Amino acid sequence: MSRVRDAMVSDPLTLDVAASAQEAGTRLSDPGVRAVLVCDEGALAGVVTRKTLVREVVATGRDPAATSLGQIAEPPNFTLDADAELEAAFRAMEERDLERVPVTENGRLVGILSRAVVQRRLAEDEPPIEEAV
């Protein structure tokens, strides 16, 4: 039985809670980056998205260089445990319509799981369909 840890990307890009909103903005300017995971000594402290930056920094007139991510990071909507069964994790991601989910182990961020990767992984694990002769 496959586990989340078997399909996750280990060591995802993160920023520390002390990093600035400007640093997060730089990362988020890359179209391939949808969210920045914010950690405090390895523990997942929250998530910052473009929407977070607009609502918490731009709209309020805060200085992005002086605003720490710890001040604006939002709690993650959903996380997965590294030892969770992969098929159950996929169903949970589908139900919540999530593309990527942080993976934790004992409260520490250990990876990120992509729904597309899980789909491919589960498809590879299925036995081939025998054709009738």
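Above is the first protein from milestone M3; the second protein from the same milestone is given next.
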Amino acid sequence: MPEQLDVLVICGSLRKGSYNAALARMLPQWAPAGLALRPAASFANFPIYNADLQTTNGFPDEVNAWAEAIRRADGVIIVSPEYNWSIPGGLKNAIDWVSRMKEQPFKDKPIALQSAAGGILGGSRAQYHLRQSLTSIDAILFGRPEVIVTFAPQKFDEKTLELKDAAAIDLIKQQLAGFDKLIRRHSPKA
């Protein structure tokens, strides 16, 4: 049996009732046996990136810890909503902070993206912009299948926030299985 892979799950939303946070919490139950998924620490308290702040004070402890969690992981899944047709500001800020590090944590790191949103595009524009940002810092992006949960209010239980849409769950399982294979192609554990 292959060694279990450590996968960090980053949620791009800070909202308690977020569909994306709910999706991120449910991923471990759909992951293949070879993937151990764990949540990333929140980036809620990261200061807004400012090169002067970095030069004067260095990287904040929370940013260093977040970067180290990414470095330790065999792969990363980012589950994020779309804000104004793009990446939520807090998530983009967190990526901007760690992108300035000498030992870039996203470099050569397999990354899968997921999103859930109320509309017909389901966060696809945010995923497109994440792909651009992560490509610029040499991440290895998983291609297909893409997980874009459209019309989220109809697919998540109103009270429990559990994803109840069978087609979406099947797609997520397919993505996680494919992501497992991608990580193993790039991991020393393979």
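Note on the second protein: Residues 166-186 form the longest helix (21 residues).
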